[in-house]
Design brief:
By secondary structure, this protein is of the alpha+beta class. Helix content is 37%, strand content 15%. The chain has six helices and five strands, in the order ααββαβαβαβα. Strand 3, helix 4 and strand 4 form a beta-alpha-beta unit. Helix 2 runs antiparallel to helix 3 and helix 3 packs across helix 4. InterPro entries: Bact_OuterMem_StrucFunc, OmpA-like, OmpA-like_sf. This is OmpA-like domain-containing protein. Pfam families: OmpA (PF00691).
Length: 218
């Protein structure tokens, strides 16, 4: 148990040094240049490597237009008692994806946190951003810089399913890693900006740590 706590502390301290304070959450659609979509050949090459990286995990991979999207369900990825704390089972697949992106100078990623509709909009947006920040911290530790990495806390704005059932709410609690080429990064980010929202203040310390057990509902 002491070794587990020590490992958790070390990882947390590392992530504090790579906190989200340098994120710029307010790019607007007007600032995004008109750029070509990600190259189809690039996506065809990347997709099988990403599938290999996340195999045997609960993550899902899909293609959406010019994006490759990896979805991490919250219920099997995060400590239910500490929203910004990843479970140890997620560290391997996220790290493998992060290393793939970091090695490819043409690749970039936008990480979106999503919540269900339980609770207030402000709380949901904060929680979803904390979760996105926890995943982004792994990418930073792998060497990815701000010019190829952005995060957003979407709250409950982009549900996958109706929030009127337990299963629907579970589907809506997720973190999405949107992989594209760097030339398309700002255009991709602009699609997920909310001009009416006040940017969330960065967390004092995004906690990515080793948690021993998980529960099914937040």
């Amino acid at each position: 148990m002491n070794m587990l706590k020590s490992a958790s502390l070390i990882v947390c301290l590392l992530v504090v040094g790579c906190s989200s304070k340098d994120e710029k959450p307010t790019e607007t659609a007007a600032a995004a240049p008109a750029v070509a979509k990600a190259d189809t050949a690039w996506m065809d090459d990347y997709e099988p490597r990403l599938r290999e990286a996340i195999k045997d995990s609960r993550f899902e991979l899909e293609r959406r237009d010019n994006l490759l999207v990896i979805t991490a369900p919250v219920d099997s990825s995060f400590n239910p008692d500490r929203p910004g704390m990843l479970l140890p089972v997620t560290l391997g697949p996220i790290t493998r994806v992060a290393k793939l992106v970091e090695k490819d100078s043409k690749a970039a990623v936008v990480i979106l946190g999503h919540a269900d509709s339980t609770g207030s909009d402000a709380i949901n947006r904060t929680i979803s951003r904390e979760r996105a920040g926890a995943v982004a911290a792994i990418f930073r530790l792998s060497g990815l810089k701000h010019d190829r990495l952005r995060i957003r806390g979407m709250g409950s704005d982009k549900p996958r399913a109706a929030n009127d059932s337990k299963d629907g709410r579970a589907l809506n609690r997720r973190v999405e890693m949107l992989l594209t080429q760097q030339v398309s990064l700002l255009a991709t980010v602009a699609e997920y900006n909310d001009p009416t929202a006040t940017p969330a203040a960065p967390a004092a310390a995004t906690q990515v740590a080793v948690a021993k057990t998980a529960k099914s509902e937040k």
